[in-house]
Amino acid sequence: MLILGIESSCDETACAIVEGCTKLRTDVIASQAAEHRQYGGVVPELASRRHCENILAVTQQALKEAGCTVHDLDGIAVTYTPGLIGALLVGVSFAKGLALSAGKPLIPVHHITGHIAANYLAHPELKPPYLCLVVSGGHTMLCEVMDYTKFRILGTTRDDAAGECFDKCARVLGYPYPGGVQIDKAAQTGDPKKYPLPRPRVAGSELDCSFSGLKTAVINTVHHADQIGEPVDAASMAASLQHTVSEILTEKTELAAARTGYTTIAMAGGVSANSGLRRSMEAMCKKHGYTLYMPPLSLCGDNAAMIACQGSYNLLAGITADASLNAYASKTAIGEMAE
Length: 339
Description:
This protein is α/β, with parallel strands linked by helices and 339 residues long.
């Protein structure tokens, strides 16, 4: 079985081909990071325009590298939610046209389930059910992976995602976009205990997170220091922030594991590449004897390989769409993500 995956939810135009659910044939990505860096973040309209310019060439390159044609495919998977609506529409529209012209099944993929599926590409032995911490620029949640296409959300963020917190704090500290990577790099030389930071909790919902207050605390500390003429130790602030976020996420995962009884834990999403979070999760799992799965750094960020992988499982489960498929900036899809 050959599945072509298309990903265009943010600022990466990507196309990949996966064979037999977990064997990656090729993964082609056209990144816009350098262009958006001058604006300090992703400009939605610019991202959409670049997707329009790149998507055909990226798909043609993926097919060429995989040594196949569109007629050899068994299905075409595409991210349809969540993400920037203009960016998503480019991918969905292109995938619909390609599927229709080639007479292939169109497979809708929820972006979050794609991130979870990235683990199957690196760890084919991983099988549901298990507990997964999903952390990215726009999402932070704890999911019970009941089957390859069935999920239950145990906890999520009430405001900012962990990745957004990193990005916004990086900007005020003077680091370029993408900020999360810069925070991780700077934290290596900083003192994680120099700046005591708050650990917000959500009353009545211990598995939910809140990072807005933490972000504000960092920004206010930096602004106050600037107002009184005192230098801020950017590396130590980065280290303190990374340490705090890592502890919060690890503690939430530890609590969720204790409540559900899962001993197999996975991480997914762009922030799962953070070295501090990886160390924290590894230490927690080692303490309890849990088995931890993490995608390689190349599969942590947005990519089409994960979409093709999840698309394979969706097709096997009979999850397909017709030409009426639309894109949604934010949607919990029935049959894929269940509250």
